[in-house]
Amino acid sequence: MVREDLKPFFFPESVAVVGASRKPGKVGHELLRNLMRFYKGRIYPINPKAEEVLGLKAYPSIKSLPETPDLAVIVVPAPAVPQAAEEAGEVGVKAIIVISGGFKEVGPEGAELERKLVEVIRKYGMRLIGPNCVGVYVPKSGVNTVFLPAERQGFPPHGGIAFISQSGAFGAAVLDWAAMRGVGMSKFVSYGNKADIDDADLLEYLREDPDTRVITMYVEGVEDGRAFMRALKETTPVKPVIVLKSGRTEAGARAASSHTGSLAGSDAVYSAAFKQSGAVRAYGMEELFDIAMAFDKQPPAIGDRVAVLTVGGGSGVMTTDALSDLGLKVPKLSDETVAKLRKVLLPIASPYNPVDVTGSARDEHLIQAAEILMRSGEIDVIVWLPYYMVPGISPNLNKEFIKVVKEVNGELDKPIPIIGVATGGEYTWKYAKEAEGMGIPMYLSPERAALAVKALVDYGKWLKLHGTYEEYLNRFYSSLKQ
Amino acid sequence: MVREDLKPFFFPESVAVVGASRKPGKVGHELLRNLMRFYKGRIYPINPKAEEVLGLKAYPSIKSLPETPDLAVIVVPAPAVPQAAEEAGEVGVKAIIVISGGFKEVGPEGAELERKLVEVIRKYGMRLIGPNCVGVYVPKSGVNTVFLPAERQGFPPHGGIAFISQSGAFGAAVLDWAAMRGVGMSKFVSYGNKADIDDADLLEYLREDPDTRVITMYVEGVEDGRAFMRALKETTPVKPVIVLKSGRTEAGARAASSHTGSLAGSDAVYSAAFKQSGAVRAYGMEELFDIAMAFDKQPPAIGDRVAVLTVGGGSGVMTTDALSDLGLKVPKLSDETVAKLRKVLLPIASPYNPVDVTGSARDEHLIQAAEILMRSGEIDVIVWLPYYMVPGISPNLNKEFIKVVKEVNGELDKPIPIIGVATGGEYTWKYAKEAEGMGIPMYLSPERAALAVKALVDYGKWLKLHGTYEEYLNRFYSSLKQ
C-alpha cells in the first residue's frame, strides 16, 4: 500500500513553522534557519509578535496564511500545542510535526497533554510526527526540521539510505557524522514519542519509496510489537532493514526506560523477532551504517564463498580471519583458476585465496585477477584491498577496475558484489571515497568489511527463500540508474 | 636490562643508505627522500654511479665515508646484500636495516642468502633489522626508512605509542592512518623476516624506553615462543602490551603461511599465552589503537564500576549496553549521590546512572556532575559524552572540564580515568581532537570506548596482582609531564 498520507511530511509544497523565532539559539529560530538552507518550497513563519523572521514575512496565526500549508511544524511550548494543532486542523492541514517536548516523557500531566493532542489530530484526520522529536530531513526536497545550530550540524547529501531514529540527539549526531563520512540519505525521521506515526507506518512508506534502497533504524522500545513485526516481515523481502536496538542489557534497559520511557523488553524476544522477520541486527552506529552502505551500493550475494584480492599480505590474512569468524568461506581455488591467475600475476604473487598481488603490483594485476575470480564460478563475493599508496597503483585504478567489474557483472547470470578495504590516511581515503562514488563501499578495516559481506550473504539467502531475489535485483539496478 | 645495542636504530647520529638512487619511484630514492624529510643527523647516500643523490654528496661505498655511520640501511638487490653487510662490518657499523626482499620468504635460495647475511652480522657483532621489511620510523629523531612515496604516505607525530609490525605494508598503512587520525607514536618497527632482532628484543628495549607508554604489536607468527612469552611477562607489569595476532582461523592461518611463511600455530595456545602473560589481545587495527590511545592518555582503572555521563539519552543507553556486554558494571548510584546530582542538574535531567544532563545542559552541568561522581567513591571510571553540538555546550567546555577533572584526580587516592565518546561530524571532531590533545581519548562510538574502558579495568587488576600499580602511576604521570 502506498502511504499517500505520509507524503506531505517528505515532499510538502509549503511549510508553516508555528513558533518561528527571531532569537538566535531558540529552537524556532535555528529550525527555520536549517529549513531555509535547503528547502525550495514556500515557508510561512508563524509568530504573532513579529512582522518578519529571518527575512520572511511572518503571520500571526496559521489561520491568517494565504494558503493551507501542506505541513505544519510546531515548536511552541507544550501547553500551547493542542490549540496550535486545532487551528491547523481547522484550516485543513493534513500533516503536523510537533518538535516541542513536555509530553508523555515528563509524567502524567504531559501524558494528558499528549492525549489531547492526539484527540485533535484524530478529529481532523491529520497525521502527526512527534511530539518531543527532531522531525525530518529529506535532502531531495530540502525539508529540514532539525534545530541544532547550523554552524555545529552537518547534513548528508541525497542517497539510498533511510534512517529512522527514536532518539533525536543521536539522530542529529548521525546526520552530522554521515555528512562528514559522505553517506547519502533518502529520508531521516526522528519520531520522538510516536503518539501517532510509528515505526510500522514509516516502514510501510519506505518500502514503496523509490529513493530508498535500504532502511536503517535506531529503536529503544516498541509499543505495538505485532504491528512492528508485521511491517518488518512485509518489508524485508522487498528491501533490507537494519535495526540498532538498544536497551539490550539489564543496565541498558534501565537506562532506556529513564530516557524514552520505553520498556525495552526481553532482548531474546527482540532477537528472535528480528531473525524471524529477516531484519539485520546491528550492534552499534558504525555497524548500522557499514552494513547499510553495502546494501546501498552493491547487490546481495548468492552464496558465502568469498575471494580476498589484496595488495598487502598482512591485511589479506586479517580479512580472511574476519570473514572466517563470521562463518563465511574463503575457499581454496581450483588448480585451473590458480593457473590462470599465475599467468597474469607477478612471479612473487600468491595466486591462492587470498590472492596476494603484492606491493609490487600494478593496476592490471588487480583488474585481471578480479575478472578471473568473477568468471571462475568458484566465488560469490570479492573483498578487494587496493592499497592505493604503493607505487605501482595508479590514480586511474578505480575507474578501470570498476569499469571491468561492471562489464563482467553485466555478463554473469548473477552479479558478484565487491566490497573494499582501505586502511590508510589522506591519500588513501581520497581514492577510497572516489571508489565509493563509483559504487564500491570502502571500509577502514577488514573487520568492518567482513560484517558488510556477511549481511549481503544473509540477505541474499533471505531473498531466495522468499523468491524475490530477481525482482529485488531489477529494482536495485534501476534505482541506481536514476 | 637496557638494550644499548638497539639504540643506533632509533637514535643514530649518522645514517648510510646503501643503494640510494636518483630515480624517483625506486625504493632507494623514496626511502632517502622520507629520511631527509625528518632526520637531522648526517646522511650518506651510497651509490658508486652517482656524484650526488637528492642534493646530498654520494659515496661509492661505505668504506669511503668520512666516518663510520651509526646505522646502515641496505636496499640493494638481495644477492648483493651479504657483501654490503660485510663492508659495513669491516668499517665498524653496529646496526643495519635490510629493506630488500628476496630472502627466506622466496624459498630455499633466498633462505641460503639469509643464512649468509646472518653469518656476516654475527662475525662483526652487528645487530640487524629485517630483511624484507619497511624498517623504522622514530618521530623524535626523524629516522625513517619507510619507502612509500612521500605524496602518498603520512607520518604521525611523536607520542607514547610504540608499534611493532610483522607486515610492512600494513605497518606503513597504519602510520598513514595514524597521521590522519592524530595518533602519536614513539617508535615504529617493521622487522620483516626477523633474521636477528625479533619481538622479544624489541619488547626488552621498549620496556625501558622513557618515550613509550604503551606497546602495540601486529604478529602473524612467532618462532621462539618461549622467548616471546618471557619478554611479554617481563613487560606487562611495567607497560601494557596490546597484540593483534592474525592467522587466528584455519583459513587465516593458511593465508599467513603463504604471506610470511609463519606457522600461525594453534590460536588457543596463543590466547592462553596472552592471557597468562597479561597482554591485551585486539581483534583488528581499530581495536588495537583504540585501546592503545586509552593507555597513552589515561591511568588504568582500580575497579569495574563505570559512570556514564551524557548529554544524549540514546547514546547513554548504547554506552550502558556496550559496557555491560563486556562484563563491566554501570551501577545504580546511592541516594546521597543522586541527591547531590539533582541539586546541580536541570529538573529534566536524569541523575541516575547513566547521568543524562539532557540536550538542554550547559557546561557547568557536565563539570559539576563529573566532580560529584569522581568524589562519590561509587565509581572507578567515567565515560563522558559531551555532544559538543548542542547550544548550551560552549567552546570552552574541554578546557574547563579537564581542568576540574585533573584537580579532583590530584586530590584522590587513586585517579579515575576518563574516556570520551563523540558521535558526530566536523564541528564535533574539532572539539573531540582538542580534548584528546588535553588528555582525554575520544571515540566515535560507545562500543569502541567500552573496549578501551575494559582494557583499562583489566590492566589495573593486572598491575595490582603484580604489586606494580603505584610504580606504574608514578612513571605514567612523570612521562606525561615530559
Task: Present the secondary structure layout.
The structure is a homodimer of 482-residue chains.
Chain A (H helix, E strand, L loop, with lengths): L6 H4 L3 E5 L8 H12 L3 E5 L5 E2 L2 E2 L13 E4 L6 H11 L3 E4 L9 H17 L2 E3 L5 E4 L4 E2 L13 E8 L2 H14 L3 E6 L8 H10 L5 E6 L5 H11 L5 E5 L4 H11 L6 H11 L2 E3 L2 H13 L8 E5 L2 H13 L9 H10 L5 E2 L3 E2 L6 H13 L5 E5 L11 H15 L6 E4 L4 H12 L4 E2 L2 H20 L3 H13 L1
Parallel strand pairs in A: 1-2, 1-5, 5-6, 6-7, 10-11, 10-12, 12-13, 13-14, 15-17, 15-18, 18-19, 19-20
Antiparallel strand pairs in A: 3-4, 8-9, 8-11, 16-17
Helix pairs in contact in A: 3-4, 6-7, 7-9, 10-16, 11-16, 12-13, 13-14
Q: Spans of chain A of 5+ residues with little confidence (pLDDT < 50)?
A: none
Widest sheet: strand ordering of chain A: 9-8-11-10-12-13-14
Major pleated sheet of chain A: 7 strands, mixed
Which architecture name of the largest domain in chain A does CATH use?
A: 3-Layer(aba) Sandwich
What structural class is derived from the secondary structure elements of chain A?
alpha/beta
Q: Which range best describes the helical content of chain A: under 10%, 10-25%, 25-40%, 40-55%, 55-70% or over 70%?
A: 40-55%
How many domains, in number, for the residues of chain A?
2
Number of helices of chain A: 17
The geometry of chain A reads as elongated
Which fold does the CATH topology of the largest domain in chain A refer to? Rossmann fold
Greatest chain-chain contact = A-B, 84 and 85 residues
Strand-residue proportion of chain A: 15-25%
Distance from first to last alpha carbon of chain A: 23 Å
Mean pLDDT of chain A: 96
